[in-house]
Amino acid sequence: MIDPFDLTGKTALVTxxxxxxxxxxxxxLAERGAKxxxxxxxxxxxxxxxxxxxxxxxxxxxxxxxxxxxxSISDCFEDTEQTLxxxxxxxxxxxxxxxxxxxxxxxxxxxxxxxxxxxxxxxxAQTAAKRMAARGQGGSIVNIASVLALEVIGHLAPxxxxxxxxxxxxxxxxxxxxxxxxxVNALAPGYIVTDINREFLExxxxxQMVKKIPQRRYGDPADLDGALLLLASDAGRYMTGxxxxxxxxxxxx
Length: 253
Ligand SMILES: NC(=O)c1ccc[n+]([C@@H]2O[C@H](COP(=O)([O-])OP(=O)(O)OC[C@H]3O[C@@H](n4cnc5c(N)ncnc54)[C@H](OP(=O)(O)O)[C@@H]3O)[C@@H](O)[C@H]2O)c1
Hints:
Blueprint: E1 11-15, H1 20-31, E2 35-40, H2 43-55, E3 59-64, H3 70-83, E4 89-92, H4 107-135, E5 139-144, H5 157-177, E6 182-189, H6 198-202, H7 204-209, H8 225-232, E7 243-246
Parallel strand pairs: 1-2, 1-4, 2-3, 4-5, 5-6, 6-7
Helix pairs in contact: 3-4, 4-5
């Protein structure tokens, strides 16, 4: 029987693979047989992950990428094609969050979040899509959104705006790119403990907030494995323009 989650022979590019969710996503895709390109600014961390994946029998390649620089995005795709071949799967994951009240967010804060999470993510996805369309063999783009694309909490206005923008971009791209057999979906995690939020979630406010999650716990990066594989692989072949929420029930409250 054919395993629809099998990614053997596919090349997957994961942005923001140096830590957190991106590192987990790359590991899971490699375990399913994909050749993975690990992209981010901290190359030493990428090299460490590459060695770990290779030790487990996978194939990985590390590439320096700053998603806020257009030239860096095209260089990353050139490098990828020359080493592991054309990208079949893009996990558009790189992101930053700056937690400050609306009254305190500066222009620099706004620019940093929007240039990384929204402008950067758009041009990474566009670059992948142009190359997939030119090649004519389709592909899967998974944009990493957030429950904050749909809901709000305080102190993350630019971040929420960026993730809501990602959701709209996902739908527009899905609509336009279906004719090229390119699927575009978004994964919207709830609170998953990583470096982006560990201090906050493990602090006093975080300990109160966990009580609002029906499953009464924060997520672990591994809790996203199933949803990621569904969107990335042939198992999700009739899904495009979807936002898949994985949040322990947080959005029900
Ligand atoms: N953790 C959660 O609860 C949660 C929930 C919903 C959504 N998300 C989203 O999931 C994604 C990953 O978050 P995380 O929790 O894993 O955070 P994280 O641990 O802070 O990791 C963020 C990743 O993004 C990369 N990155 C940041 N700016 C970049 C840039 N300009 N160019 C390239 N890479 C860049 C970082 O790598 P370098 O510093 O090496 O460049 C790092 O690998 C983000 O988009 C985040 O918004 C997270």
